[in-house]
Amino acid sequence: MAPEFSSKSYWNTRFTTSPSAFDWLLPACSLDPLLRTTLASCPDPSPHILHIGCGSSWLAFHLRAHVSQPGQVLNVDFAEAAVELGRRKEAEMYPEDEGLSSGAEWRGEGAEEGERRMMRWEVAGLLDLASLVAAAGGSAAGPRFALVLDKSTSDAIACAESVPAADVFAGMDAMFSGSDAYGTVSSLRDRSVSDGSNTLDPMIVLSLHLATVVIEGGSWIAVSHSQERFWFLGSNSSAAARDPCRKLNSLDPKRFWNLERKEPLDAPEQTELSNDAVSQPKIKHWLYVIVRTSELLPPKRPRTWNEKS
Questions:
Q1: Nearest CA to 220 among 141, 127, 143, 287?
Q2: What is the spatial distance between Cα 229 and Cα 181, in angstroms, rounded to a whole number?
Q3: Which of 8, 235, 236, 298 pairs with 181 at a CA distance of 20 to 30 A?
Q4: Do the beta carbons of residue 25 and residue 53 sit within 8 Å?
């Protein structure tokens, strides 16, 4: 049976039973050169970084090494076991720095910039806008991240089920209209959509949610095993047939993101099974660099959508 990569219980079990550090696709150090150049080009000398799907990767600690204050880095995962594992690992590695790293500190309440001695670790569901925005500091904070790091998290997100489009709009309404609106979102969660075409690919939902917390000109650096992971940002006209949101201009991810770089990366060499084994073809992973446009979110709701309760 194939692993359920979109299941929280799968990941909680994995991180509980196998807590050792593990990096998907590529070693964490492979991104160091790109991180240096990307952060050097940021106009903000202390840019905020969002690391999605942190898992048990060493990447979080490479990010810490690239910033002046650890508090600039927010590591999120929807598996509680992964977040707790990361917090413990950082405390063990930097015992002299253990201290203020709470939500109050991230929001600037009762803490000076220089007191941010630890990274932030938060549980957040990337397909749940309320969860992501809360982890990022709340809707009042507005977009704040200059860089998103995604090492195969998009591959796991792509395994999730499609999301009712009305729920995506309702979630945006709730986040940007006040907390009282969230009850409406909750009531829509389990509502069956009569028209099956009104669902969105989970990768499109991820791109819209990240667009709400990333500043104009901010970068989303992703490493994926798939050459077509961000198919919806390409110029292929057949993309509209793969997901109905491509027909709705207000939801088109290309309004909010530009795919500026896509290139193959050599996967680490695999050990041969035997001396006389046939030479294996080289495996390629894919690097994507995606840049946030100046388009604002949330977009206006299309009038053609029917939100029956």
A1: 287
A2: 33
A3: 8
A4: no
State how far the Cα of 74 lies from the Cα of 87, in Å rounded to an integer.
11
Residue carrying the six token digits 């945006």: 172
Angle at 228 between CA 222 and CA 230, to 5 degrees: 50
Specify the higher pLDDT residue, 50 or 28.
Answer: 50
Edge-first strand order for the sheet with 257-266 is 120-123, 73-77, 48-52, 145-151, 214-224, 284-292, 257-266
User: CA angle 227-233-238, nearest 5°?
Assistant: 85
| Residue 21 pLDDT | 66
Model pTM?
0.80
Beta pairing partners, 147: 49, 219
Has residue 101 got a pLDDT over 80? no
pLDDT for the residue numbered 126:
93
Show the 3-state SS of 206-273: HHHHHHCCEEEEEEEEEEECCCCCCHHHCCCCCHHHHCHHHHCHHHCHHHCEEEEEEEEEECCCCCCC
Residues 6+ apart with CB under 8 A from 174: 129, 130, 181, 182, 184, 185
Residues 144, 52: Cα–Cα separation, whole Å: 15
Does residue 286 sit in helix, strand or coil?
strand
Top pLDDT among 236 and 290 is at 290
Radius of gyration (C-alpha) of the chain in whole angstroms: 20
Where b means 16+ CB within 10 Å and e means fewer, 92-129 reads: eebeebeebbeeebbeeeebeeeebbbbbbbbbebbbb
Phi, psi of 198 (to 5 degrees): -90, 45
Burial 7-34 (b: 16+ CB within 10 A, else e): beeebbebbeeeeeeebbbbebebbeeb
71-93, pLDDT tens digit by residue? 999 999 988 888 999 999 999 99
**pLDDT score for 293:** 95
| Residue 284, H or E segment | strand 284-292
